[in-house]
From TrEMBL:
Gene source species: Saccharomyces cerevisiae x Saccharomyces kudriavzevii (strain VIN7) (Yeast)
Membrane topology note: Single-pass membrane protein
Protein name: Peroxin-3
Lineage: Eukaryota, Fungi, Dikarya, Ascomycota, Saccharomycotina
One of the GO BP terms on file: protein import into peroxisome membrane
Keywords tagged on the record: Peroxisome
Length: 268
């Protein structure tokens, strides 16, 4: 019986070899087709994983921003509660209140390894992640995604590591400080410019004037492009942030695989 089985195996192997050599080109073509299909499938899976990762921006715009807005709104109410449009403040007093808003907001965002910041930028759990992906991927892409999430998980882990790092905190705080100085400089200029003739020595301004100056400042900051090839205008605010040196260092560390060849490294 053992000899009979051995003979069968030998015959099968012989038939396979003779079949291969009788038409090697067809066999090679079949192998190439199968390899191409496998490569295409893997490439498609990687692409869908990358699209799923890019769709995370949906979270901060539709969910995460609500948490951030709640923190800021609460701080504004604390600092300006009871102050009416006709009440007056000096620029120094207004700046002091705005400073408190920035400082207290930062203290809530940048704590416990930036956990609050992470929840603003990314879903907290798998159910939140699944909800996000259901909003941004079609049914077929979502099914394909669930079959292989390796690349997506790697990207999310790397992003989480980046968010929780001390290097990122330094950069974000630098950007926030630059934003504060930019805002106060613009508000000061716009508020003083609203003085009426004969009020050159005026030191106090109605809260309504500060509100209008802030609105004008926000409109400048929220220009949709950093520069326009048609008008030649430049978003001064974005240009200011772009010049912050720690931001360049952080960007370099991202492209060098998390600080391998940079002074920044993503360690909590």
């Amino acid at each position: 019986m053992q000899q009979e089985n051995c003979n069968k195996l030998q015959n099968r192997f012989y038939n396979w070899v003779t079949s291969w050599w009788s038409d090697p080109e067809d066999k090679a073509d079949d192998a190439m087709v199968m390899a191409a299909k496998k490569s295409k499938k893997e490439g498609q899976e990687v692409y869908i994983n990358e699209q799923a990762f890019l769709s995370l921006s949906w979270w901060i715009l539709n969910k995460g921003w609500l948490s951030y807005n709640e923190i800021i709104t609460n701080q504004i109410e604390i600092e300006f509660d009871g102050i009416h449009p006709r009440d007056t403040l000096t620029l120094e007093e207004f700046s002091s209140r705005l400073t408190n808003i920035f400082r207290n907001t930062n203290s809530q965002i940048f704590q416990q390894n930036n956990n609050n910041l992470t929840s603003i930028l990314l879903p907290k759990d798998s159910s939140g992640q699944e909800f996000l992906l259901s909003q941004t991927l079609d049914a077929d892409a979502l099914t394909s995604f669930h079959s292989n999430t390796l690349v997506f998980n790697q990207l999310v882990n790397e992003l989480t590591q980046c968010i929780e790092s001390t290097a990122t905190s330094i950069v974000l705080e630098s950007l926030i400080n630059e934003s504060f100085h930019f805002i106060m400089n613009k508000v000061g200029i716009k508020t003083i410019a609203k003085k009426k003739p004969g009020q050159e020595d005026q030191q106090q301004y109605q809260m309504a004037v500060f509100a209008m100056s802030m609105k004008d400042c926000c409109q400048e900051m929220l220009q949709t492009t950093a520069g326009s090839s048609h008008s030649g205008s430049v978003n001064e605010y974005l240009a200011t942030l772009d010049s912050v040196q720690p931001l360049d260092d952080l960007s370099a560390s991202v492209y060098s695989n998390f600080g391998v060849s940079s002074s920044f490294s993503f360690k909590p």
